[in-house]
Amino acid sequence: MSTVRKAYVRPLDLKNGRVDMTHGSGGRAMAQLIDELFATSFDNEWLRQGNDGALLPTAPGRLVMATDAHVVSPLFFPGGDIGCLAVHGTINDVAMLGATPLYLAASFILEEGFPLADLARIVASMASAARDAGVPVVTGDTKVVERGHGDGVFITTTGVGSVADGVRVSGDRARPGDAILVSGTLGDHGVAIMSLRENLGFATVVESDTAALHGLVAALLAVEPDLHVLRDPTRGGLATTLNEIARQSGVGMLIEEARLPLREAVSAACELLGLDPLYVANEGKLICICAAASADAVLAAMRAHPLGRDAARIGTVIDDAQHFVQMETAFGGRRIVDWLNGEQLPRIC
Amino acid sequence: MSTVRKAYVRPLDLKNGRVDMTHGSGGRAMAQLIDELFATSFDNEWLRQGNDGALLPTAPGRLVMATDAHVVSPLFFPGGDIGCLAVHGTINDVAMLGATPLYLAASFILEEGFPLADLARIVASMASAARDAGVPVVTGDTKVVERGHGDGVFITTTGVGSVADGVRVSGDRARPGDAILVSGTLGDHGVAIMSLRENLGFATVVESDTAALHGLVAALLAVEPDLHVLRDPTRGGLATTLNEIARQSGVGMLIEEARLPLREAVSAACELLGLDPLYVANEGKLICICAAASADAVLAAMRAHPLGRDAARIGTVIDDAQHFVQMETAFGGRRIVDWLNGEQLPRIC
User: Which residues belong to any copy of the PurM-like N-terminal domain (chains A, B) (predicted)?
Assistant: First the structure.
């Protein structure tokens, strides 16, 4: 993104204007979009370099890199929009390796005809999320596709972070006996999107939990630097994420239904929509697996953090050659909690 | 991307299968796509970690980060396809800051119904380009959008690299008196795409010049560590890129039409299509601006490299408060070479 200001014949019409093919041409119209919207909103010393990439200070420690495309529909939803979601989602993927997120790159695929006012609102939301998280958007790219070949806006963000010595968080480190914790209520994001899509008029609007979790991760690492696994249960929800970890670590898991934190409104909406909250996406929650001996301290640290107030210890890692995730139901039975099969919630993030 | 192998009921049908919404669900179908296509093709130790991000060795020196969305249409063209283009494009953005590219992240937005055989061909091309360049794809993401809300496949790649001490390449370092070099013939990529789109049946097929330029950059830095500016003239072509640099450095430029390297077939196609080759995209060429004293040595190093055989010294940086790029035409006149206005070549990369 070039950020050197220049005078254009007319300022960008951020109120009534629309994206057209020239905004992706590489020419003057694109330069104007970058100058008057992206560079202004994301402003920082790296973006101001005005090159096709950013030159950044040497990063301390081991590097972490994560990328996520965001295609959520609708673009605006209770509790957030595609802009802040794109910032939070990638920051969280970086943080789930125990890293401190340092920088973000953002790439936009815009559809011809998309209102510039909506784009401006989304970019403002991204910029605000990045500022709040302390993770600047240092470089970017914009492409435009013809009407009917995109869907408003898709945003891919990529994050880079650094990991302190001694931290070895990874999905393959769950061990039998480890405690399984979750940082808060399940399914809020997915239900917020689905309620909107299905036009459900609930008395209580469920808001997306979209949030950047790196501060919470830092708080947990402060009490236990040797956390075994961190992962955010996004697409596929808690059930699929636990199955992923079980497979990766070569273990089984046993969780207790009665301990799963769930908002009443989410529970009611899931019933109405025919969804199982175990499979519904979260965008501001994490699963933490750690040695049983440190579970109480880690849980206390979670609950002391604003994003972990509803945290709970939900189960235990067990020995299981078949890597099943099982659940003790509220009625005292036991059932297998399988991977998500099929597509329950398309374009949830 | 999770890369832990598991048995699926049936292997992915890479011959006759198609992308469906479940491939973006986060569930079992997505895990299978990742396992059987992405992880297999891009295989490397970082991807094999199987987390939502990659944990990488400490990067030496200052960091560089660049990102590019690729929406080229058609997806396959003479000389390449969206896959290798996505690898080359981002490697080049990293290299244009004088950096050694180290890692790539890849994010895919797939359209429901897209043939898996085409996807496999594209992924194979990406993997081969990454291998040839020595820059592994260490992490990725896949999303699926409904039919009619995407266009086959969009690929965003993000690159990270590191810059050696003493290298200070940037678009704001062009100084009056500096030499302007270009590494080879102009407009090959844009003409390759446009000929295909317009279904021109040329006797000579023009191939895209898509290539990774970091090896060439290393060869140039070896003879002159203090290169002032490097930039690849992609969208908007040579003309727009020179205008960007002129604006960023606060200088003017004077180039000579007679010195611009141009294939005859490209020249002929441009005439037929009504295109000015100065504005046509390149994907394997770079502009280099350096002190006049080192221009001969840098030009010789370019010509000694397989990707710089047709390199030429095309002009000089001059003092100009209006930051105009001017060209001495083949007929001895002088004209202003403006920014690209409007959209000459939609979805060229």
Answer: 50-163
